[in-house]
Automatic annotation (TrEMBL):
UniProt cross-references to Gene3D superfamilies, sorted A to Z: Sodium/glucose cotransporter
GO terms under cellular component: plasma membrane
Main location: membrane
MF GO annotations: symporter activity
Biological process terms in GO annotation: sodium ion transport
Record-linked InterPro entries: Na/Glc_symporter_sf (IPR038377), Na/solute_symporter (IPR001734), Sodium:Solute_Symporter_SSF (IPR051163)
Spans traversing the lipid bilayer: 12-36, 57-76, 96-119, 140-158, 164-183, 190-211, 245-263, 283-309, 344-369, 390-412, 418-440, 447-469, 526-543
Topological relation to the membrane, as annotated: Multi-pass membrane protein
Name of the molecule in the record: Sodium-coupled monocarboxylate transporter 1
UniProt-annotated location(s): Cell membrane
């Protein structure tokens, strides 16, 4: 008879984990089908992609949160606080100021135009289909790369804790997501996001509550973080070379809201799926309030991890290979002995990933239809129902394409990540185009195209130089291993983490693939917002 404490037994789901994870998948499927039924009779692209602008504002706010809060937030925010303290927490204040910019500068211009693709605005503003297609195409490719990463993360997790091979895990999750977005469109995405966001929130909350209780309560966690010099909120150093200061995280928060929430197609579809501009602004306000709670939860989880390992850092001690693994290691170490906790945490991460994936898939379908296909002669003669069927087909193809991209990730490795990084470098020039278009009426078509191309080339050169020179790296706050036990084993755990790591278990694979170095991606955000404001400055200087 097999030893129940064997490595194999420890690296796989138990019945409670299967039940929780299966419940997430089945609920997402059922909710997606039921939510999409209302739009089946209407059969229009506007209903399929925007919900006929009749969506429930509260559901849209939760969906917006689910689409924006990805695995990078779940796992990366905690890592950042664990290594560098709580200064980043103050970016929530910047998010508030950024939401005012989006709500009162961007939405009043964009919402009344009743657009389906955000990039249609570029054609309306600059009278340039070329600029519209250039911007849309860049984001289509960027979102397709992101879809592959989104799908691969939970798939490698699922295959590592169950008997499913990797290819089967990719197909199961990819087909599931493709099925409900194809049938229900944005309605299915919004209401499944509500479920997935709830699972994400309560999954992380359960981890924090249980570990905090084991450590002596929230007060003990906070006191331990203060002793370890992790509490810092008002570092007023104006130097741009300090990793986080109060001023830099304010700019980061403002840019995050303007770029990610105000000027990205997935979020644009949600903000314009409600019945009025006032409701859209209310959705944005609810989103900011919800984001404050859920990001605070993620930030606090970093303090919990520090309190748990203040005298025996698993990174320094060699228990984990990357700092990004700290939260998953915490679950494996402290909560693995509790039936269902591993399944709940994996479901939380998968929920974050699937909500982002479904958002991107519908966004890609909208951009391809509106910006490229709709005006082609063969599609011009179609009635609304036929056009809707085409967009359903585009959603299905996009979902299936994500399966192909996920399968390629393990083969392409760093090449795939480099392509995604280059795609991300396009974001700030596009942000500059939109902000210049809205705020500076004297900017013309020639200037917009020239500025976009020049800024993109500048970004690519900067990204290549950054990686070549290994720039932008900063030291973490002190970590200790003074109380580590030599050759220690993890107690009270159903996951023996070192054997799990050596056997490429779900923990190692999740962390290596989900983020591809999350902290690096967070640093890149600073590079992107600097590029945006340089771009706008050049516009003003040349064309004023």
């Amino acid at each position: 008879m097999d030893d129940p404490t064997s490595v194999e037994a420890k690296t796989h789901f138990v019945w409670a984990d299967y039940a929780i994870f299966s419940l997430l998948l089945m609920t997402s499927l059922i909710v997606g089908i039921l939510a999409g039924r209302k739009g089946w009779k209407k059969g229009s692209t506007r209903d399929f992609l925007l919900g006929s602008r009749s969506m429930n504002p509260m559901a849209v706010a939760l969906s917006l949160m689910g689409g924006v809060v990805s695995a990078i937030s779940v796992l990366g925010n905690s890592t950042e606080v664990y290594l560098h303290g709580t200064q980043l927490w103050m970016n929530l204040i910047g998010c508030f100021w950024g939401s005012l910019f989006v709500g009162f500068c961007i939405l009043p211009v964009i919402y009344p135009l009743e657009l389906i693709s955000l990039y249609q605005y570029l054609d309306l503003r600059f009278k340039s289909r070329a600029l519209q297609k250039m911007g849309s195409m860049s984001q289509v490719f960027n979102n397709i790369f992101y879809l592959g990463i989104c799908l691969y993360a939970p798939s490698i997790t699922l295959s590592s804790v169950t008997e499913l091979p990797l290819w089967a895990s990719i197909c199961v999750l990819g087909i599931l997501c493709s099925f409900y977005i194809t049938l229900g469109g944005v309605r299915a995405v919004v209401y499944t996001d509500v479920v997935q966001t709830s699972v994400m929130f309560f999954g992380v909350l359960a981890v924090i509550a249980q570990v905090s209780s084991d450590l002596g309560g929230i007060g003990k966690v906070w006191a331990t973080a203060e002793e370890g010099k992790r509490l810092e909120f008002f570092n007023m150093d104006p130097s741009p070379f300090v990793r986080h200061t109060f001023w830099s995280v304010q700019v980061l928060g403002i840019y995050f809201m303007a770029s990610t929430v105000g000027l990205q197609q997935p979020q644009f579809q949600r903000l314009t799926s409600v019945s009025s501009l006032k409701h859209s602004q209310s959705v944005l306000l609810a989103f900011v309030i919800g984001l404050t709670f859920i990001w605070s939860l993620f930030y606090f989880s970093g303090l919990v991890a520090y309190a748990a390992y203040k005298d025996c850092d698993p990174l320094t001690n060699g228990k984990i290979e990357k700092a990004d693994q700290i939260l998953v290691y915490l679950v494996a170490d402290k909560l693995g002995h509790l039936p269902g906790m591993t399944g709940l945490f994996v479901a939380a991460v998968a929920g974050a990933v699937l909500s982002s994936m479904s958002s991107c898939a519908t966004a890609v379908a909208a951009m391809i239809w509106e910006d490229f296909l709709k005006d082609i002669w063969i599609f011009k003669t179609m009635d609304s129902r036929q056009a809707c069927n085409v967009t359903r087909g585009l959603s299905l193809v996009t979902g299936l394409l994500s399966i192909v991209m996920a399968s390629l990730i393990s083969q392409l490795g760093t090449l795939f990540q480099a392509a995604y990084t280059i795609g991300g470098a396009i974001a700030s020039p596009l942000d500059g185009v939109f902000i210049a278009a809205i705020a500076f009426p004297w900017v013309n078509k020639v200037g917009a195209i020239a500025g976009f191309v020049t800024s993109f080339i500048f970004n690519i050169c900067l990204v290549i130089s950054k990686y070549y020179l290994h720039a932008g790296q900063t030291k973490s706050l002190p970590l200790s291993i003074e109380n580590c036990i030599v050759n220690e084993t993890i107690s009270n755990s159903s996951l023996d983490f070192e054997p799990v790591m050596n056997n490429s278990s779900f923990v190692m694979q999740l962390m290596n693939i989900t983020t591809q170095d999350i902290t690096q991606e967070q640093e890149d955000r600073f590079v992107h917002y600097i590029h945006t404001y340089i771009y706008i400055y050049i516009y003003i200087y040349i064309y004023i």
